[in-house]
Design brief:
It contains twelve helices and four strands, in the order H-H-H-H-E-E-E-E-H-H-H-H-H-H-H-H. By secondary structure, it is mainly alpha-helical.
């Protein structure tokens, strides 16, 4: 627990105090956010606000991960677990950093062209598939060894699973390694695009991501406390997960970094996360679902992202089939802007929706545990 707290604190402080530096640097470099001409008229006032702020909380997460591991080395020997960096960390941080890199290319092209059109759709899609495939293969094809809570070396689980999962793996839904890699790619694409579409109002995607990441931190730490690698627990109700403490540490670090960034990103935003941050967060959230074996729980946990993504899908299908629009504008948050809601009002209410999804998902997760032990 100490390591997680250290990681959260370090990430929060780095993000809180380094974001103003990033604002000055990006402003000096004229890395301002271009605004779509067809977007809501009130957004034109945001033109020129520094973008690519995701660089700050991605770096803060990585640094905080290192700090958390330094804290682990101070624990009594009997409690040491997962002190060395693991494949799990490689996959999770890799998904965050390299998904963020795809977003960074998109942001860079937007800034350079002074136009809201950055990396084309095919290029962005190819980048998402490539990142998902690389780390999906690592997650499925590279088992390692890990240390249990008693300090014994045991055969490790792979980061990902060859079965679909809800609260835990579902044995009847075996899909094999190739199928699992394909599922991971799809989850990465869905999560990155979901967060990216949600990132349309000041603080909206950041606040929603904090809730989802904090929930994954709680899930992973609960799995660590009831871990099958711990001989004190029986297979009847333990969790077969690789490196749950590592997952909790990274989730906590990312949540803390986002909270620090939110101080400057909330309305009126002084900096935007850009596609750098949105795709980075989406990649990490996808990795969290995979590594905690809760892939089918993600649509509930990230319910706001699903709702906003579906609003875009519905709008496109309706317009192409009937020539009519269901919403004034998509994604959904812009529909309410054009309906006269204030930006802050929309953000707070959408945060409430995000919180409801997180609460339902955590309730389902814990109720499954209670059912298993009673």
């Amino acid at each position: 627990m100490r390591a997680v707290i250290v990681a959260v604190g370090v990430a929060f402080l780095i993000s809180l105090f380094c974001t103003p530096i990033a604002i000055k640097v990006f402003t000096r470099l004229k890395a301002g956010q271009p605004i779509r001409a067809e977007g809501p008229a009130m957004h034109q006032g945001k033109k020129g606000t520094p973008t690519m702020g995701g660089v700050v909380f991605i770096l803060a997460t990585v640094i905080a991960y290192v700090a958390g591991h330094l804290a682990l080395t101070t624990l009594p020997d009997a409690q040491i677990a997962q002190v060395e960096p693991t494949i799990t960390a490689l996959v999770l941080l890799g998904l965050m950093v390299f998904s963020g890199a795809v977003g960074f290319i998109d942001d860079f092209l937007k800034v350079r062209k002074r136009h809201s059109g950055g990396l084309n759709k095919r290029g962005k899609l190819a980048g998402q598939i490539l990142v998902g495939a690389i780390f999906g293969v690592i997650a499925l094809y590279f088992p390692s060894t890990m240390q249990d809570i008693s300090g014994n070396r045991t055969n490790a689980e792979t980061v990902g699973s060859t079965t679909l999962s809800f609260i835990r793996d579902i044995p009847a839904l075996e899909i094999g390694k190739i199928g699992a890699v394909i599922v991971i790619i799809m989850v990465v694409m869905a999560a990155t695009n979901g967060v990216n579409l949600t990132d349309g109002l000041d603080g909206l995607a950041t606040g929603a991501s904090v809730m989802v990441l904090a929930a994954y931190g709680l899930i992973a730490f609960w799995q660590y406390r009831h871990w099958c690698a711990d001989p004190n627990y029986t297979e009847a109700y333990c969790y077969t997960v690789r490196d749950p403490l590592e997952i909790a540490l990274i989730a906590g670090a990312a949540a803390g970094a986002c909270v620090g960034f939110l101080w400057w990103n909330t309305s009126p935003a002084r900096i935007f996360m850009g596609d750098t941050g949105a795709l980075g967060l989406g990649g990490l959230i996808a990795g969290m679902a995979m590594s905690t074996r809760t892939i089918l729980l993600l649509p509930i946990l990230g319910g706001l992202f699903v709702i906003i993504t579906m609003s875009v899908v519905i709008q496109i299908i309706s317009f192409r089939t009937t020539g009519k629009r269901v919403f004034r504008m998509s994604p959904l948050q812009h529909h309410f802007e054009l309906a006269g809601w204030s930006e802050v009002n929309i953000v707070v209410r959408f945060w409430i929706i995000a919180g409801i999804g997180v609460a339902i998902a955590l309730g389902l997760f814990y109720s499954e545990f209670l059912a298993a032990v009673t």
